[in-house]
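Amino Acid Chain and Its Fold in Token Form
===========================================
Purpose: to set a sequence beside its fold so the mapping can be learned.
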Amino acid sequence: MPVTDLAAERRALPRPQWVLAALGVSAALAAIVAVPHDARGAAAQCWPAFVLVAGLLLVGFVADQDGLFASGGHALARLAPNGWALYAGTAVLVVAVTTLLNLDTAVTFLTPVLVYAARSRGEGEAPLLYGCLLMANAGSLLLPGSNLTNVIVLGHLHLSGRAFLEHMALAGLSAAGVTALVVALVHRGELRATIAPGGAPERPVLGVGLVAVLAVTVLVVVLRSPALPVAGVGLVAVVWRCLSRTTAPEAAVRVLGLPVLVGLFGLAVALGSLGRVWSGPSTMLEHLSSWATAPVAAVVSVLVNNLPAASLLAAHAPPHPYTLLVGLNVGPNLFATGSLAWVLWLRAARDAGAQPDVAHASRLGLLSVPPALGVAVLALLATGTH
């Protein structure tokens, strides 16, 4: 076959995100036809999570355009005396952005910043590149909005952000810390550089992006159901930028990745419906201890993605919701099918000119997930939470 024909055939093939969207919509429609009442219940449990992440991604988009993330990355690159200090600062930055603006926002906007920060110092980019993904997943246990799975499972708990943080703070920080340590040890040879970058630091615009970040932070911490208010803040921020002609609407739509969100929402509704009519998942969880719940949730998250997995496993109130979340949030580090963050991270890394290796990221996950699960569950048990 001629090369031109091959190129035309590749263009004619549906992109993976559209295949996922079609699969999700088909699965959701099948659930609606088969078990309409249960499908409505699953949709009611899942929609706040997807609306929340859409709002946070829009806020992150505006904050990125204002240079807030780039400024943080440049400041780290300039102030860190060596690679180890740069990596430690990166860990703090990733966990902070993940906590306040969701792990999907963190990997979308911090990945290119960290790649450029490493290059500006003449250092290897691998520790920051892989650390961004793995620490975002592992560190998404601190607030409900940090991960969509938190919102889905929290549907049964009705906790405010502050109450959730009180339960999960030690476990989330422990999981993120162990994950950061494993990545650092594997890439310790690339963290020994002491080259300082030149050039003046980037000055961020302290405007609508910063206001939006502060607003959603307050909303997520204070409100029990912050999805619609946060989405409203994100929408207003983007519309403001579009009206001022500093933002193209198409760019904001691209950041949302609507086909992937729609596909995952459809699968979550379908599996949530299945979990309501089939007692298998809830019966299994009732017979599992806290120690067993986390690894089982981790495996299921890799098999079907952690968002549909959360909908399936939390269709009924789970006996160990917090350890379930540990597995659903940390477990996706095992493989690219585990979370939406992997898809966004791969896209952001490639757009920055990096060449992320999924196999290497999975090997890091295999090394970091078991100890991260262990310390997180131990932290929950130590604080009387499970």
